[in-house]
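SAMPLE LOG
Freezer: B-3
Tube label: C17
Construct: single chain, 654 aa
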Amino acid sequence: MSSAGAYRHLFTPLRLGPVTVTNRVLFSAHLTNYATHGVPTEQHAAYYEARAIGGAGLIITEEHSTHPTDWPYEKLIHGFHPEVVEGYRRITERVHAHGVPIFAQINHNGGQASSMYSRLPVWAPSPVPDPLFREVPKAVEEHEIREIIDGYALVSAHCMAGGFDGIELQCSHSSIVRGFLSPATNHRTDAYGGSLANRARLLLELVDAVRSTIGADKALGVRICGDELIEGGTTIDDAVAIARMVEATGQVDYINTSIGVATATLYMIEASMQIPPGYAMFIPSAIRAAVDLPVVGVGRFKDPLQADRALADGLCDMVGVVRGQIADPDFAAKARSGHASDIRTCLSCNQECVGRMGLNRWLGCIENPRTGKESVPLPAPRRHKKVVVVGGGPGGLQAAVTAAERGHQVVLLERHVRLGGQAHVAAIVPSRAEFFDIARNLIAAAKREGVEIRTGVDATAATIRGEAPDAVVVATGARPLRPWWAGDDGRVVDVRDVLEGRAHPEGRVVVVDELGFHQATSVAELLADRGCVVEIVTNGMVVGQDLGVTLDMETWNVKAHDRGIVQSTDLVPMGVSRPGDEGPITLSLQHHPTGTDEERICDWVVCAVHQQAEDSLFHELRNEPFEVHRVGDCVSPRRAHAAVIEGQRVAVNL
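STRUCTURE (predicted):
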């Protein structure tokens, strides 16, 4: 179907005060870590421009700090410095060139911060430490509140000089304004504390100050939290009342929404695939019923049909699609042109977006190796070649797609009858089923680009030579590696043996987690659902410790508790023994902090341990007269993002 005919509402215009957007797809504010020395960069400009080219109806930038006391993370844009204006102009000119309006979100993070970078006390309404930063903030005095308001006005003026079409006040998940609004963090007894009207005083004063600065011909929006999901925090009833107060000012053009608190309930703000899509839509729905202003809804929208249904059901007036447009900047354009099936759908895995930034790196995407690198031009192909790719996992598929996009003739050989590699294995667990989208999207792209795909082919050096290639990309992955302590007991198996159906553990199962990610927790969940009594032991301090980076730890712990899965830490496997083929296994463990020995009596042991690169074919081909490259796990076993990045990198340089 061509144009926007499949969507009744998504591609209709919407008026936000003085600004009219051509469609309802919003690229909402989110952190990128692209700033350098507090100023926006060419990386920002290219990133936002790509989403403007891709058809977003409106772009709202990441937050711009309004005061020197607010520096919660290193690569924050310091909007109070006049040096930012030049970078603002670069961003807005690039976005405006494609007919898309762009707003700036401005904010002071308040007590949800640290003094590590600023070397100044953290400011907040009350001295209530944040559960992540664990720093007691300074309760701001009234003259400091005036300073905060002046800071918002100053940054608004910088944004106007920088060419933005509007301002959004971040009063939601990480903001000093949220801190004032919430009874959990506002314990004041002056005019800014106590009743909701008093707690909202700062917000309303900021609305006045910013509107006075930007004038009537620019848009002003307010983003509020609908439910903090913490004890004694803001609830949906509070949020509705706040929205009414905001509307009553007559100075605000739209209301954006959010759920949760960064950092206490961050896993609900940037929800992983463990949380169902649209989970937060009760918030804009309730607010929309109470006010006449346009209301934005958010909540893990993966495809345009979900967004259109939310609009059709009257839940919101505009839909925030962040990770969907991080994964595919052409999200809106593909939907509008009738090519929604070509959208590279977000996995909600959080590995390269949320997780990467949590490690103080710039934002990327596990599916899109160009995310964050839009400002880096790709070299032109030197000449068109015949390329043979061996292996149909994420790395091989990405290499094949990129090579074909760049004009090469590509043949992909996969020994299994299905494509997807270990992405298929990971997605066997029901709660991780969306992970297979990484392969599904690449398979569809390979077919569109004319890649010749042959499955069920066991590629050898001889068969590859028979293809007469100019270049070969080996992406043969990795195989399970039996740990030294496992011996030859048939009931000590790898996690892949279980997920791929070669082993069927029953009874008491111990899962050994040496990887600290989804492998152990996924198989434990699956086995518990099959009726096994499961314990996970790990040599780390926490089972699945990297789940914290992707915001999966909270949901994992809930599931583990519900299923009775025991989690035991600081334990190193030392060996297994079994008196007979049918008896129980004794797993010997050492508690490494103390050197004491422990044992577990069980029926099966499942190993989530490091794999071994399957690189034999690469070494066989190294002396052939054609180019030979390898990518992904056959270089060294890692996670999927490494395979995708390497597949793209090799193909670009063919």
